[in-house]
Fold:
Amino acid sequence: MFEARLVQSVILKKVLEAIKDLLTEATFECSDCGIQLQAMDNAHVSLVSLNLRSDGFDKYRCDRNLSMGMSVPCMSKILRCASSEDTVTLRAWDNPDTIVFVFESPNRDKISEYEMKLINLDQEHLGIPETLYSCVVKMPSQEFARICRDLSQFGDAMTIACSKEGIKFSAAGDYGTANVKLAQTAETENQEEAVVVEMKEPVKLTFSCRYLNSFVKATPLCAQVQLSMSAEVPLVCEYQIGEIGHIRYYLAPKIDD
Amino acid sequence: KMAQRTITSFFTRT
Structure:
């Protein structure tokens, strides 16, 4: 059988918020190591990779590997039924047709169970090549969300340029142009507020704002976001999920036609 | 004019 318990259901609630813009259905791969998901959006422009390690759960049991196809909107509806203080347990039997979500209130006086039908999905797994990125930027996730929101008012696409001076975001459209420059912060400052640029070579890439604005739905998961970039390869936008794992978004760049 | 690449043009199906 499969059973995974998280005292903080709010983590799973936030994970669903972070994927529901991009994915309508996804296969959750459950093994001894934990729960993994890899799925592309419908247009195959972005890829979501989620990893929740078994040791990050408060209780975890997986007797045999399971691939569970789930409707993301349905799962999101169910998780919205959990209070943030609730404990969540996911439960399925071997060869399951359904998965059960159990929510328990802190003093266990309310227990809710939701059973969701699983769906058969054609699994398409992509091999992500090991890449040494030219630029890796760590910055406050709220700042990144704000910049994506602000700049998307000016154009459909946003150019991210990274150099040793810092990181520059720009957008251009019918109304005019927008530019936001962030300088590296001094090492002594608060880590959550830090902007850190590790650069081997300067990089300038252009991405669709729509996807970036979907990625920043993960902002509540982590105070910092990591952006990894190299010329002419997908951007990696990564958020740590507490002590349990991470969510990575890969986004194909726009290129000159 | 810029064109949107797909993720499958970078990552191969396994």
